[in-house]
Design goal:
alpha/beta; about 55% helix
Length: about 475
C-alpha cells in the first residue's frame, strides 16, 4: 500500500462533508491497512476471545431451542460492558470502523437474546419485569458530560447534534459552565426540537452579545444582562423536575460554591427538582472575575419563585466539577462515560488519551503526569495552610480543584484547536466562528460514533424493554384499581 493512497484516504476523511463520506473513506482505509483481516481474526491477546466465543454459541443454541429461560440464565451469569475485556482501549487502535467480528457478533446476540426474552410468552410477566430490572441495574448505563470552555462551549452543540442524528445520545447528561447551556437544551427539548435549536443561526441570535464590558470595581468585568436574557428566552422558569417530565432525560448542571468550606453541587431532577434551570445555568457560567456569582432560584408549591439555598451564591461549574462522573455514578448508576471536552485545560491532559499505548515512553509520560499532579496538589494544600486571607484561600481551593479534576472519560471527543478557535474563548461569537465550532464538533464525533454505538446498544435495548414492561405494569395496576 503506497503512502500516497493512505494520504488520499486520510485527506478524504479530513475534508468529508458528511458522516457517510467519512465512513466510506474509513472503511476503504481499513481494507487497505489490513484492519479488515484483523477484525476477521478472533484470536487476540487483548481480550478473552474464548469466553466470548463460548457465550455466543450458548446464546445461539438456547435461541434455536426456543429456550427463553436458558437465555435468561446465560445473561444473568455475567453480562457486563467489559466482559472478557471486549471494551479494552487496545482494541480500538487497529481499525477506524468496527472491531473484532466476534465482539460485534456477541453484542448482536445479546441484543437479540433480550428481544427474545421480552417477547417470550412462556415467561411469567412479573418474572420478566424482575429480570429486566435486575439486569438493567447491574449492567449500568452511559452518560455524556459536556465540559466548560467559555466561548468555545458551542463545540458541544455540534457533538450533541451528531449524536441525536444517529440516535446514540445517552439520557444521562451533565454540563459545566458553557457546557451547561447545551446540556440544559438537551434536558428541555425533544430530539426534533434539538435538531431545530442546535444550529449556528439560533445560537448566534441568542448569544451574539453575551459579553458586555462593564469595567473594573465590579464583581464581574462583564455585565451578565444579555446572557441572562438569552437564558430566560431559552428556559424561562422551567424547573429540573418539569424538564425531566417533558423529555425523560436526566440532565445535570454543575455549580461551584462562591465561598469557603462549600463544595460543588450537582443540580438535577433528583437533587434539586424545584430549582430553576435558568439561574442554575447562569451560575454555572459565572467564571470568577468575568461574571458575578449567582443566587439560585426555585419554584415553591404555589408556583412562586423564591431563593434556593438562601445566603449562598454560586459560580462557574467547571472550577470544581467539570466532569462529575463519580457523583453521576452514585445518582444514576452510570458506569461508562462519553466526554465532549473543549476546556482549554484539556490541552495539558491529552497525554492520558493513549491509554492503550504499551511503550515505555507512553508509560513514563503517564507516570510523570501523575507525579506532577500529586505534587501540585500537595503544594496547594501547604500553601492554603499558611495563608490566612479568606479570598486567597478560596482562590487556592479553586486552583487546587482545577488541578485535581479528571478531564477525560471512557470515550473522548476532542476538538482540533487553532489560533482562530482560541480567539473565540473571550469574544462574543460570530456566525463564522459558531459555524466553525459546530462543524468541529461534528467532525470530532464521527470517528467515535461506531464505538459509541457498540458501547451503548445493550444498555439502550435493556432500558427500552424495561420501560415498555413498566408501562404495561402501570396499565394493569390502573385497570385493577378501576375494577
Amino acid at each position: 500500500m503506497s503512502k500516497k493512497a493512505f494520504s488520499e484516504l486520510q485527506n478524504r476523511m479530513k475534508t468529508a462533508k458528511s458522516y457517510e463520506e467519512y465512513k466510506t473513506a474509513a472503511i476503504e482505509h481499513d481494507k487497505l491497512s489490513g484492519a479488515e483481516q484483523w477484525k476477521a481474526t478472533e484470536n487476540s491477546k487483548d481480550y478473552d476471545y474464548q469466553t466470548i466465543r463460548t457465550r455466543v454459541k450458548r446464546m445461539r443454541l438456547a435461541k434455536a431451542d426456543n429456550d427463553a429461560t436458558a437465555l435468561m440464565y446465560i445473561i444473568h451469569e455475567g453480562l457486563h460492558g467489559n466482559l472478557g475485556n471486549i471494551a479494552a482501549p487496545a482494541l480500538n487502535r487497529y481499525a477506524l470502523i468496527g472491531t473484532k467480528h466476534l465482539i460485534e457478533e456477541f453484542i448482536q446476540e445479546v441484543c437479540e437474546a433480550l428481544d427474545f426474552i421480552y417477547q417470550a410468552e412462556e415467561i411469567d410477566f412479573y418474572e420478566k419485569i424482575s429480570f429486566f430490572e435486575e439486569t438493567t441495574h447491574a449492567f449500568g448505563r452511559s452518560c455524556i458530560m459536556l465540559s466548560g470552555g467559555a466561548g468555545l462551549g458551542f463545540f458541544h452543540a455540534g457533538v450533541v447534534r451528531t449524536l441525536v442524528e444517529h440516535d446514540v445520545l445517552p439520557d444521562v447528561i451533565s454540563g459545566a459552565s458553557a457546557g451547561s447551556i447545551v446540556a440544559a437544551l438537551v434536558g428541555t427539548r425533544t430530539n426534533e426540537e434539538l435538531l431545530e435549536m442546535l444550529t449556528p443561526e439560533v445560537i448566534y441570535t441568542g448569544f451574539n452579545k453575551w459579553l458586555e464590558w462593564q469595567g473594573f470595581n465590579k464583581e464581574g468585568l462583564f455585565d451578565s444582562t444579555n446572557l441572562e436574557n438569552a437564558l430566560i428566552e431559552l428556559f424561562d422558569l422551567t424547573t429540573f423536575e418539569e424538564a425531566y417530565k417533558k423529555t425523560g432525560r436526566h440532565m445535570t448542571v454543575t455549580v461551584s460554591a462562591a465561598d469557603l468550606h462549600q463544595y460543588s453541587r450537582l443540580l438535577n431532577a433528583k437533587t434539586s427538582p424545584n430549582a430553576v434551570i435558568t439561574q442554575a445555568v447562569r451560575a454555572s457560567c459565572a467564571l470568577p472575575i468575568v461574571f458575578s456569582p449567582v443566587q439560585l432560584k426555585a419554584k415553591n408549591q404555589a408556583g412562586d419563585i423564591v431563593p434556593y439555598i438562601p445566603n449562598r451564591r454560586f459560580a462557574d461549574g467547571s472550577l470544581m466539577a467539570d466532569l462529575p462522573f463519580d457523583r453521576l455514578a452514585r445518582i444514576y448508576g452510570v458506569n461508562h462515560s462519553i466526554v465532549s471536552q473543549i476546556n482549554p485545560l484539556s490541552t495539558f491532559v491529552k497525554v492520558n488519551m493513549k491509554q492503550d499505548a504499551s511503550s515505555l515512553l507512553e508509560t513514563s509520560k503517564r507516570y510523570v503526569s501523575k507525579l506532577v499532579k500529586v505534587n501540585s496538589i500537595y503544594a496547594f494544600d501547604v500553601l492554603e495552610s499558611v495563608v490566612s486571607n479568606k479570598k486567597a484561600k478560596l482562590g487556592i481551593q479553586k486552583l487546587r480543584s482545577i488541578v485535581d479534576q479528571q478531564y477525560l472519560g471512557n470515550i473522548n471527543i476532542l476538538p482540533t484547536l487553532n489560533k482562530n478557535s482560541l480567539k473565540q474563548l473571550a469574544l462574543n461569537p460570530t456566525m463564522e466562528g459558531l459555524t466553525e465550532l459546530f462543524e468541529s464538533g461534528e467532525r470530532a464525533t464521527w470517528p467515535q460514533l461506531d464505538l459509541i454505538k457498540r458501547n451503548t446498544i445493550i444498555s439502550k435495548t435493556l432500558r427500552q424493554h424495561l420501560t415498555n414492561l413498566q408501562k404495561v405494569e402501570a396499565e394493569l395496576l390502573s385497570n385493577k384499581h378501576a375494577i
